[in-house]
Amino acid sequence: MASLASPPLPCRAAATASRSGRPAPRLLGPPPPPASPLLSSASARFPRAPCNAARWSRRDAVRVCSQAGAAGPAPLSKTLSDLKDSCWRFLRPHTIRGTALGSIALVARALIENPQLINWWLVFKAFYGLVALICGNGYIVGINQIYDIRIDKVNKPYLPIAAGDLSVQTAWLLVVRGFLLNFGVYYATRAALGLTFQWSSPVAFITCFVTLFALVIAITKDLPDVEGDRKYQISTLATKLGVRNIAFLGSGLLIANYVAAIAVAFLMPQAFRRTVMVPVHAALAVGIIFQTWVLEQAKYTKDAISQYYRFIWNLFYAEYIFFPLI
Questions:
Q1: CA atoms within 13 A on the CB side of 229
Q2: Are residues 108 and 193 part of one domain?
Q3: Cβ contact 166:90 at 8 Å
Q4: Is position 19 within any domain?
Q5: 230 and 186 within one domain
Q6: pTM of structure
Q7: What is the Cα–Cα distance from 216 to 53, expressed in whole angstroms?
Q8: 24 found inside a domain
Q9: 76-85 long-range contacts, Cβ below 8 Å, gap at least 24?
C-alpha cells in the first residue's frame, strides 16, 4: 500500500519526467471519447499551444501535488483547536468574568484591610484556586446547556452542544469534574485561613448588593430566549408577564439597589469612602435608566433585548471592579 505522504500517481509521473527530460508516460486507462464536431471545429480555429513534459517543471509538479492533497482529512492540530474552542464556549466566558472579578475583588479588599498579610508568593498560588472556581462555574452553566439543548437550538444555536460541536458525553465529563473541584476549594480554604472571624461592613454590603443583583439577572436572563420559550411552551416570567414588564422590573430593582448603596455611604461614612461610593453608583444608575430607554425606543427587538441583557452583566462587572475602592 502506498504511503499516505506519497503524491498521487499523475504527480509522480510528471515529476519524474521533469527530472529525466523524457516525455511523461501516458497512464493506462480507457481511451478518451471522440471529440464532437463542434469541439473539433473550435479547436481548429483556436489551436492550443503545444504542451510537452519538458515544460513541466519540478516546482509545478510539487504545487499540483500539494493542491491534490489539500482536500485530505483535517490535521490533528485543527481537531484539538476546535475542541478547545468548543470547551471555551461551553464555559460561557461572560460568566467566567463575573466569577474571576468577584474572587479577585474580595481578596483585594481583604488584603487592603490587612496589608501585613500580603505575601506575593501566596497571591500567585491563589490563582490555582481561581482556576478551581472557574471549573465550578463551568459546572453551573454546563448543567443548563445539557438540559436545554432543544431550546438552545432555537434561542442560542451558537452554543457548542446545540451546534453539535460538543457531545453530551463530553459535556457531562466537564460538568462532573467541575462539581468535584468544589470540594477541593472548600477544604483548601479551611486550611489556608488563619484569621479569626471579623465583621466587615464592605463585605456585608457587597453580599447584599450582589444578592439582589443576582435576582435581577435571574429574572432577565430569559428575555433573549422568549422566542424559543414560546415555541416550546416553556413557562418563564418573560413569557407570562411580557418582555417590557420584566425589563422595567429588572431596571427598577437595579435602581433601588444603587439608591440603597448611595444611602449607605451617607449613613456609614466611617465604613465607606463617600467620594467613590456616591458618584460611581449614581453613574451606574443613570446608565441603566438610559439603557432601558434605548430598549423602549427599539420596540424590544431581539438585538435590543440582547444588548440590554449584556449591559446588565457589564454593570455586574463594574460593581466588583470598584468594590476594593469603596
A1: 15
A2: yes
A3: yes
A4: no
A5: no
A6: 0.60
A7: 74
A8: no
A9: 82/165, 83/166, 85/165
Mapped onto helix, strand or coil, the DSSP state of residue 191 is helix
Nearest to 134 by CA among 176, 168, 182: 182
> For residues 123-138, b (16+ Cβ closer than 10 Å) or e, as one string?
eeeeeebbebbbbbbb
- Residue 254 resides in a domain: yes
Following CA atoms 79, 82, 83, 85 in sequence, which dihedral angle do they give, to the nearest 10 degrees? 160
Widest CA span in the chain: 100
Q: Are residues 212 and 315 in the same domain?
A: yes
The string of pLDDT tens digits covering residues 37-78 is 444 444 444 444 444 444 444 444 445 444 444 444 556 776
Distance between CA atoms of 298 and 307, rounded to whole angstroms?
11
Report how many domains make up the chain: 2
Range(s) of the domain holding residue 281: 200-326
pLDDT in tens, 270-316: 999 999 999 999 999 999 999 999 999 999 999 999 999 999 999 99
User: Could you tell me if residue 92 is left (phi over 0), alpha (psi between -120 and 50 degrees) or otherwise beta?
Assistant: left
DSSP 98-136: HHHHHHHHHHHHHHHH-GGG--HHHHHHHHHHHHHHHHH
Is residue 214 assigned to a domain?
A: yes
Residue position matching grid coordinates 448603596: 261
Q: Give yes or no: residues 163 and 206 share one domain.
A: no
Does one domain contain both 294 and 223? Answer: yes
**Among candidates 68, 74, 60, 76, which has minimal Cα distance to 15?**
60
- For 262, the grid coordinates are 448611595
Host H or E run for residue 277: helix 274-297
